[in-house]
Amino acid sequence: MPDPRYTALAALGAATVYEANGQRGAIDPAIKPLDPTSRVAGRAVTIRLEPADNWFIHVGLLHAGPGDVLVVDAGGYVEAGPWGDVLTLAAQQRGLAALVIDGAVRDSQDIIAAGFPVFTRGVCIRKTTKVQRGDVGVPVTIGGQLVHPGDAILGDADGLVVVPAVELDQAIERGHERERKENEMRRRILEGATTLDLLGLPRPR
User: Fold this and answer.
1) 133: exposed, middle or buried (C-beta count within 10 Å: 0-12, 13-18, 19+)?
2) What domain range is 83 assigned to?
3) Contact (Cβ atoms closer than 8 angstroms) between residue 25 and residue 163
4) Nearest to 149 by CA among 84, 60, 23
5) Model pTM score
6) Distances from the Cα of 88 to the Cα of 17, 33, 57, 84, angstroms
7) Tens of pLDDT along 118-150?
8) Pairing between strand 40-48 and 32-33?
9) In-domain check, residue 192
C-alpha cells in the first residue's frame, strides 16, 4: 500500500515544501518535467550510470517497486538517451511513480503519452551501450543535490526538491503550516490588505 505521506507531500507542491523546510534541497532547475502537468512524490531508488551507458538502469529497475521514484545520476551527460519508451513501460509495470535523471532521455512524446512522469536535463536520440558497470542503492548527486536511497523526492512544474528520509514528517508538517499562513494572507488580501502590510515592509517615501 502506498505511503500516504508521499500523497500529502505531492499535494503541498515543490515550492511550498522547499520554502517550508528551510529552503533546502532544491535541485538544479535545468532538470525539468517532460510534461509540465506532472506532479509526483515518492521514495528515491538511486542509480549511478557511466556516461552513454544504460546497463545499470535495467539492473536498478529491479530494485524499485510501487510508488518509488528512480533517481539516476548520469553525470549531467546529455549526448545520449539512456531511457526511452520501453523502459517507461517496464517502470509502469512495476508501479514506479516517476523517473528523475541528471542526463537525457529519448522517445519523449511516447513517454508523455504513456502518462509516466519524467524529469530530465535533456532529450537526445543517440543510443547508449550496455557494458559499463554502475551502482544501485548508493548516494548520488542530482542537479547539485545529494540524494540518499530512501530520501523523498518531490517534483512538479516548479521544480524538484529532495527531503531527507528522517525529515519527511517534519517537512509535511511545516508545509501544512506554510499553507495555512498563505491562505490567511489570501483571505486578508481579498479584504483589502496590501502585501506590504502583510509582510511588514515599509512604503518608500
Assistant:
1) exposed
2) 4-174
3) yes
4) 60
5) 0.94
6) 27, 14, 11, 6
7) 999 999 999 999 999 999 999 999 999 999 999
8) unpaired
9) no
